[in-house]
Design goal:
- This protein has a 5-stranded mixed sheet, with helices on both faces.
- Helix 3 crosses helix 4.
- The protein is globular.
- The chain is α/β, with parallel strands linked by helices and about 140 residues long.
- It has a single domain, classed as Nucleotidyltransferase, domain 5 (2-Layer Sandwich).
- It has 4 helices and 5 strands, in the order E-E-E-H-E-H-E-H-H.
Length: about 140
Amino acid sequence: MRVLGIDYGDRNIGIAVSDAFKWTAQGLEVVTKRRDEGELERIAQLIHEHEVSEIIVGLPKNMNGTIGPRGEISIAFAKQLEDKFGIPVHLWDERLTTVAAEKLLIDADVSRKKRKAVIDKMAATIILQNYLDFNMKR
């Protein structure tokens, strides 16, 4: 069983998945949010396709560790996922993951236009990999 990593943004949802051993995270895609909640249908397809047993949702905390409005939205989304799919959903501190993703893409000399298209997927990958690394040490 695999783990799905999600970077839940205002317009896009970055998605990554672990390998079967839960050692590495690979970026899958960016799902554009729609008013009809079609993104939940796509997430359901990915859960089925990749035999996902748990989901990690990035929790954007403030730098002082508090949870602001953006964090509350992510918490509500995580609850929605857990209620809809009936599998464990964990929140994971995502502070600075988008910054790290941007830096990786700049260092790889990816153009600004291409970075915009993949930044959310890269952030989801970093969130998931951090979660997997933490749990591997336990």
